[in-house]
Amino acid sequence: MHPFTYKRTIGVVGIGNSGKTVLLTSLISHLKNHHPELLGLHPGSKKQPAEIICFEERSLPGMKIPMLPHEKYYNSFRHEMRWPDKTADALYYHCAFQRRDWSWTDVELTFIDFPDERFNDLLMLDDKVDFAGWSTQVLDRLESHPESRALAADYLATVKRQLSAGVSDAETVLRAYRLLLVLVDIPDLLAGNVGRK
Ligand SMILES: Nc1nc2c(ncn2[C@@H]2O[C@H](COP(=O)(O)OP(=O)(O)O)[C@@H](O)[C@H]2O)c(=O)[nH]1
Ligand SMILES: [Mg+2]
Q1: Atom of ligand 1 nearest to the CA of 24
Q2: 37, 159, 170, 180: least buried by Cβ within 10 Å?
Q3: Residue 61 has what DSSP assignment?
């Protein structure tokens, strides 16, 4: 234990299937079994190598979201050649470690793997995509996985009802879409004890 602690919370965001969970799982493995030649850290003291030691995975009892099952995900793609299942939940991973070259400060990191549905709007960053193209992509994404389909069931049913009745009530569709976003509301997810101190 050192007298000071460097704490950071890092969110991983991106559209669905962009590789967030795999990237985070790999990064955690690198921190856990650190090899400075594979994951170079910014050098601190020149007397000691910039190397992670005393790594500890920790649970945060105040968190409202589940912990990322690192071992399970890592083993499934490393040993069973299976990618992690998609989840509608945000997941967190918390760890503490020391650096061999830091004599005064411990490190505590919290990672948040955000659910994809919250970031559908990122598709708009592509300036070749117009509103109709964006809508189609969002609907395709929501329908492409059983988990997203379940999460978005009310919204998808609202859209289909309107299509089959040949009506277009934008207010109702918008309300259903907002309710879908509320299901994965970020401030509420983070109401636990995540934060920078
Ligand atoms: N070949 C390859 N495919 C990857 C890699 N990372 C992710 N994928 C593919 O991308 C899919 C989505 O990855 P995932 O991390 O679950 O995406 P997320 O929805 O952003 O969390 C996986 O199921 C794989 O098919 C990688 O490093 N190499
Ligand atoms: Mg994921």
Answers
A1: 15
A2: 37
A3: T
Q: Where is the domain boundary, 67, 99, 116?
A: 116
Q: Select from 81, 100, 116 the last residue of a domain.
A: 116
CB of 17 closer than 6 angstroms to any ligand 1 atom: yes
The token duo for 47 is 């007397």
Q: Quick check: CB of 14 below 6 Å from ligand 1?
A: yes
Q: Tokens for 15, please give them.
A: 């559209």
Q: Tell me the average confidence (pLDDT) per consecutive run of 10 residues in the chain, 197 residues long.
A: 93 85 96 95 84 96 90 92 82 96 95 80 80 87 82 91 91 88 58 40
CA of 89 to the centre of ligand 2 (A): 9
Q: How many domains, in total, are found in the chain?
A: 2
